Amino acid sequence: MHAYRSHNCGDLTAANAGETVRLSGWVHRVRDHGGVLFVDLRDHYGMTQVLADSDSPAFAAMERLRAETVIRIDGKVKLRDASLVNPKLPTGEIEVYAVELEVLGPAEELPLPVFGDQEYPEETRLAYRFLDLRRESLHDNIMLRSKVIRSLRNRMWDQDFNEFQTPIITASSPEGARDFLVPSRLHPGRFYALPQAPQQFKQLIMVAGFDKYFQIAPCFRDEDPRADRSPTDFYQLDLEMSFVEQEDVFAAIQPVIQGLFEEFGNGRPVDADWPRIPFAEAMLKYGSDKPDLRNPIEMQVVSEHFRGSGFAIFAKLLEQDGTEIRAIPAPTGGSRKFADRMNAFAQQQGLPGMGYIFWRKGEDGQTEAAGPIAKNIGPERTEAIRQQLGLGEGDAAFFLGGKPESFEAVAGRARNEIGRELGLTDENQFKFAWIVDFPMYEKTDEGKIDFSHNPFSMPQGGMEALEGDPLAIKGYQYDLACNGYELVSGAIRNHKPEIMFKAFELAGYPASEVESRFGGMVKAFRYGALRMAVVRRGSIGS
Questions:
Q1: What is the model's pTM?
Q2: What would the DSSP string read from start to end of 340-371?
Q3: Which residues, including other chains, have CB under 8 Å from residue 445's CB and lie 6 or more apart?
Q4: Which residues, 6+ apart, have CB-to-CB distance to 113 below 8 Å?
Q5: Which 3 state secondary structure label does DSSP give 33?
Q6: Across all residues in the chain, what is the average pLDDT?
């Protein structure tokens, strides 16, 4: 027999009854049932129940076991009584009667338990990461990541992409976070940067003629941890394609991502209709460039109904340039109690509140509007709002006003909250959308023009577009949103040096700085460059 095991702890079934077996693993927990000891023995593959009574030579050793001790046991497989079968375990029909036990690795008192789902401070979990990873949920997450990566590789290879690895030590490149820096041994006082993404390298791979590239790339970003990503454990699917337009990219990506969600989504439906939503439309309707389309609510501009109205707050606001009033419809939300809850939500977000109207049946049996705003603007205007929003009796609408950039984010969160509170959001599905036509530039708080997304993207309209208003220029940039999260970010890349120099000039970067910081890429573009597209999938972490 093998020195440590004849079977894994997830192997044994009723078909093994009567066999003598050897198992090794960790003591998940010990239970004393009055003269009979039970040990749940765990390894990477599963769990097996082991028992010993006072007649067993292994009983005395089993009495001294601590949780997470590593042991080897020899024993005989027995069928459990029908009433004791555990259908939740693949090994739930059997147990192993231990006749010999050897401690392979004793365990001290644990700083955090592996058994159970107790929450412990993050500092403790990270200090004892090896214990934390023994916990079922974390172990399953790591295995899921491994399976997802394998599936991604297979899907990319099936589309004739080639996998290459790009350098880790490199020069700094502008991305969404700060660089991690590595001091140079040969050049004291100077530093290399760890790549936030392999952006420049993969573009050079396309210029070198390899056509389709992908990589499961480590990304080093000096930023605060996020709920869905850690700066120390951040990998992404990175790919690049040659001789493509935006729709070619979408056609290549959809079967990869959709197939992945169908494979690992636990049976939840995956909507195959992926609309293209311009950035401006996404911000107007959803208050977010990563909208959750499971929620059917769409915001609308209702400024004209308040202009010159008796609701002075909004009427005066609309006298200022660049302001508007936006409505968030709330089907079935037509009660003062719900309106008060949403007002409290707005106050938690740092706003004084949200105006609202709700519609109910009046004493005459007709639908009437109620709430402070309704009293101030009158029945004709409230009816026009109701008609525009497609609402009826028992419904409500909430209102936010000002310059859109000052309230859009809160409006988006309020839309999500209303959808959840009223049960309008169908959480048992995946809905995707491509967000397109991102603005190339934005105005900083100091009034300067700067890049709003990625500086290496091709502006729509090329050089001609760069001669006009920078704030009107859109880039060939796109994100893929799913259920309120950004999954993919990418762009058609700028491969023409003259357009690149002009694009950077508008943001205040002279040609000399572009040559200094990105000279290798600019040089490559002078020797037969091509139209290429980049895609980066969101983080693959634990």
A1: 0.89
A2: HHHHHHHHHTTSS--EEEEEEE-TTSSEEEES
A3: none
A4: 67
A5: coil
A6: 93
